[in-house]
């Protein structure tokens, strides 16, 4: 039955569903695990790279985490080329705001703008939805550290901790249990590592398949973003691994 | 039979129905309960949030109730990203009017403008209707407090009390029985709480899943809008709960 | 057979019919009864409201009768949101004419303009016809009191008395029998009430489900429009009710 | 077989036919009888009105015969709202010519212009042909009195006498037998009446269902158009009725 | 099999054929016989009119032969209203050239321009090919007398003698046998008459159903075009008729 | 299976093929044999004309070989009207370059430009590919004599000798065997004649069905193009005919 | 099942896949082997030409490797005419940058720009994806030598060594085993030759079917690109051939 209504974004099913949008979301459920955690003084984004090869140049065309502006970073799950187009727009919006008002764009304002673009692609014929979800980590003076999630429908939500991609149910379960207020940056990193260990399909995830980004304030109280080094990631992941390989821990 | 005419907004069925518009409305019948009540000195909007997680940032991207201008607020039922696009237009219209005429836009004028936008999306090919209904609470000098409902077809109606979303039949029944002229703000809040208790699927609704907005005049006789705090909501809901958990009360 | 040609306005059936236009008209046959009667010194429009609830605000977004200009009023049968779009255009046309020529727009000219709009929506792809019929009551110095009917195809006809909506065959039969030249305003109102009693599905129609509009000349010989009050309507309807509830009278 | 090629104007059938255009013509074959006759000093147009009701205002929105300019009149068979759009264009073209060249537009030039419009609607996708045929009666200094026929395909032909609509085969047969050169205006009117009596479905056609238009030169040798009065029509029709109601005469 | 590829001009069949263009050509094979012959000092065009009625005005809207400019004439086979649109363009091109360069447009240049228009209608979606072929008779100083044929695909070919329409195979056979260099105008007319007698479906073709056009140089060596009178045509056809009505001669 | 993907240029088949483009190429495989050979001091183009009639004017609208500019000529295989449109563009490009830079356009640059046009028609909806292949013979100072082939996909290749159209496999086989470096113009013509004798369906091809074009340098070392006369062609073909009519030689 | 969702780029399958994009990629898997290897002081691109004929002009319209600017070269796998269009854009972008900033365009910036173009063709109706993948070899001061791969989806990745086209799995396996840091240009060439020997379908690949391009720094430390000569290629391939023709080595 559903099949009569599932080939166009401009067609509602009799139950009022938009199947094409749901199918686009399905693409994201198969993407590599992507986790975001909001700490007291930080936001952590981390993700699993699906295409792995020792011949890949790691520094070029990073597959998961993209800086947008000094104070906003995003992690991508879904179709990378769709993401690139939106990231270009995000960067442009951020710079235009900075140029016009001489201050960084508020994080929610930036994220909202791209949601409206995504929504357009779900309502007009001759288009398909963007097959990509983002986790945004940002900081601004008004709201401090923030973590947002947007999906292909153009929906936007603010989170304290969330996960998308493969096994996101498992990941969200762990986050719900373990996240608490006032986590230090170290706590957050450990939590992310724990979530990734549990939700990734790989038995022993290493720096080769992972990216970690940390948004914090530096000692001058300026927002600063950095990617963890391979060594840092491996250390984190090793610590996060269950000591005894118990089934289901 | 109906299936031959139900995939495009530009096709009438032989009985003169527009199935795509009806399907869009179906989406709203599955949305969280949303209630509006007009009192003597107030309008109350309240709604059930469907996505609930203790990890959600409550202050960001509120899911049900959005202020449009100082004197107009709306509650949303349906596709949130569709709603965002329309809310942006509503806010812009309100500000433009205020700028041009140096006074707040009349509520009905504002609401009518968005209905015309919705209607366009039901008559042209290559589009789908907006999958969202609004309850508008407003105040202006001419008509005082007002409550309006618009649906995906672009229809507009003025109400004294109404409910949309899941179990709206039950909700409307209670409103029809209990609403009366000259209700105080307290009466209105109690009525809304009672309706929500009866119409929500959750056994024990709490502030975590609910939003309440109140539009009243403050002591300077200026219109003022505020969201109830979690405590206020919980108090209301507790009071509204049937004392003994009798079946069907 | 017909089904091969009935999904697009741009397709003639082998017998030269436009099924989509006919389907749009079908929507109107299910709308509430709407009656117009031309008297010696008046035009009466009246109609049955389909959505009835004591919680509906009666003064807001009247469902049946809309003034266009001082000298033109219309009653609507069909899709209300479609009607709103056309009514906006009608009002604008009327005001533009008044501004340009410093006199009210001739009624037929105004009505013709909206018929051409309706026709366009029956000839081009990617559109659907407007699902709405109008009865126009108007007065101008050239033709005096006038009553027009337009349907979704864009057809226009001048009438002395006519009815559209549910049971319009019955209604038209009564009008054909009872209408005569030189009817006073009172005669007209009684005739309309009689027609409504017979054609409405409700056993005992009251002011709650009815609207009556009267266009007459006031004592200064200026055209004036007014809606009947609930009391007036109830009095009329009570008088029109068959004294004994005989079956089929 | 034909059904594969009959839903779009942009599709030729294997035999090189355009079914959509033929279907549009079919609509006209079901329209009321419409007759045109060219006399020595006149052109007569007459037609049967399909919608008849004593409640119809006869002077408003005449259903069959429309003046275009002082020297051109047309009779319409088919979809009235389609006709209105084309008649508006014809009137505008006629006035523009008169304004630019200070003389009436040549009849053939005027008629050709509307044929090109009709042709466009048979060659492009997303449109349907105009479902209307016209008989044009005109006079200009160059060609004198003229009678033209245009159909939905945009074809144009000049006639001495022709008939379209219901039973046009019968009507054309009578015209072919009875028409001769140098007919007086009276002869022409009698011929038209005879044709209508034979071709109309109604047993006893009267002025209520008929319109007659006569284009002649007045005593100042100026072209003049007038509609016959009801009395004149009834007299004509009475005279045209076969004396004994023989079957099939 | 063919039927999968024959509904759009934008679809090649697996053998690389464009069925819609071929179907358009089929329409021309059913059109009235149309013949063109190039003589030493002339070009003759002649054609059979399909719509015949003694009530048709012969001088108005000639069905087969249209002058384009003083030195170019065309005969039409196929859909007349399609032809009208192209003839308008041809006349305009010819006049523009004459205005710009103060000399008549070269015949081949004129004919090529309309072929490109026709080609466009075979390559783009939402259009159908023009259902019309032309024979062009022209004269210019460079090439002298010329005869061209264009078909719905936009193909162009120069001929010494050719025939299109019904029975064109028969007609071309006769032309191939009987045409020779240095034919006088009289020879050419006789040949055309002979061809028409053989290829027309009518047993005894007369001036009523035929048009003959002759393009020659007049005594001042200026190019001149004239249509033959009915008497001339009848004389020609009578002479061309086989003396004894042998079957198949 | 293939049939699901073969009706639109915008659809890839599961194996990554574009059937519509392949179908367009099929049209060319059925076109008349067309051969190009590059010699030491010349390029020869020759082709078989498919439409043959002694009544065809040979000088007008040559069917196979078209000069583009003094130094570039092309031979056409496929849909002639498609070719005409592209040849117009080629001639315009050549003249624009000559006007802008005061020197002839480089051959490859010219040929590339038309390939890009062809490619566009294979990637966008609502269009069909151009159903035509070209052989280009050209000369410029940089590369000397050149021979190119372009097909409906927009592919471009440089050749020493190639053949397209009917039996092109046979023709290419002969060319592969017999072509060698440093062929004189006479050698080239003999080779082309041999290829045509073998690949044409006609038993005894003569000048009536053939066109030969030769691009060489004249005694002033200027590039010069000429078509062979009928006598020259007949001589060539007679010489190329196998002495004894052995089957398969 | 998949077949319902595989004919348009604007349709997601229920698993969130875009079949049309995958089909376009399939075209590339059938293209000739194409290999890129990054060395310490060089980037090597090499590829197999699918169309081979001794009559092909080798210098014209090279089938595999195209220079973009002095410092960027690309190898092509897939539909050549699609590639040409993109290469034109690449060259233009490179020159515009050079003109605007007086320095060569950064390689990643150039490559990214064409990826965005490719992405557009996967998201809008009425288009098909570009059926072509590129390997880009480039050098700039910031990142030194670089090797990128882009596919029809618009995805971009940086590689140390990669292979696309026929048997790319085999090729990538060898690269993964044999590639190491600090390879000299000679090492790289040998590795590429080894990969081609193993992955090409031809038993004994020679210069006739291969192209090799080398991007290095010359003695002035300027970036320089050159194609290997046929002799060089043959020497390389001979050396790369397994000494004993063991099955599967």
UniProtKB/TrEMBL annotation, chains A, B, C, D, E, F, G:
Gene3D superfamilies: Glutamine Phosphoribosylpyrophosphate, subunit 1, domain 1. Residues 5-27 form the Proteasome alpha-type subunits domain. GO terms for cellular component: cytoplasm; nucleus; proteasome core complex, alpha-subunit complex. It is found in: Cytoplasm; Nucleus. Keywords: Cytoplasm, Nucleus, Proteasome. The keyword rRNA processing does not apply. It holds the Pfam family Proteasome_A_N. InterPro entries: Ntn_hydrolases_N (IPR029055), Proteasome_alpha (IPR050115), Proteasome_alpha-type (IPR023332), Proteasome_asu_N (IPR000426), Proteasome_bsu_CS (IPR016050), Proteasome_sua/b (IPR001353). SUPFAM superfamilies: N-terminal nucleophile aminohydrolases (Ntn hydrolases). GO terms for biological process: ubiquitin-dependent protein catabolic process. Transmembrane segments: none annotated. CDD domains: proteasome_alpha_type_4. Belongs to the peptidase T1A family. The proteasome is a multicatalytic proteinase complex which is characterized by its ability to cleave peptides with Arg, Phe, Tyr, Leu, and Glu adjacent to the leaving group at neutral or slightly basic pH. The proteasome has an ATP-dependent proteolytic activity. This is Proteasome subunit alpha type. The lineage of its organism: Eukaryota, Sar, Alveolata, Perkinsozoa, Perkinsea.
């Amino acid at each position: 039955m559903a099949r009569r209504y599932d080939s166009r974004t401009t067609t509602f099913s009799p139950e009022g569903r938009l199947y094409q949008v749901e199918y686009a979301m399905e693409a994201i459920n198969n993407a590599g695990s992507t986790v975001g955690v909001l700490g007291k003084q930080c936001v952590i984004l981390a993700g699993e790279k699906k295409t792995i090869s020792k011949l890949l140049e790691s520094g070029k065309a990073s597959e998961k985490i993209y800086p947008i502006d000094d104070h906003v970073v995003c992690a991508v799950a879904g179709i990378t080329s769709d993401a690139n187009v939106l990231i270009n727009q995000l960067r442009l919006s951020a710079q235009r705001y900075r140029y016009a008002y001489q201050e960084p764009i508020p994080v929610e304002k930036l994220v909202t703008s791209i949601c409206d673009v995504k929504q357009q692609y779900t309502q007009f014929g001759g288009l398909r939805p963007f097959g990509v979800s983002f986790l945004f980590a940002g900081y601004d003076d008004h709201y401090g550290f923030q973590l947002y999630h947007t999906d292909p429908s153009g929906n936007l939500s603010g989170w304290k901790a969330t996960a998308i991609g493969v096994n996101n149910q498992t990941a969200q379960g762990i986050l719900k249990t373990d996240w608490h207020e006032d986590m230090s940056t170290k706590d957050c990193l450990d939590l992310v590592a724990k979530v990734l260990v549990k939700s990734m399909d790989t038995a022993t995830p290493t720096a080769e398949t992972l990216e970690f980004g940390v948004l914090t304030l530096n000692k001058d109280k300026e927002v600063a973003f950095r990617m963890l080094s391979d060594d840092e990631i491996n250390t984190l992941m090793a610590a996060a691994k269950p000591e005894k390989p118990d089934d289901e821990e």
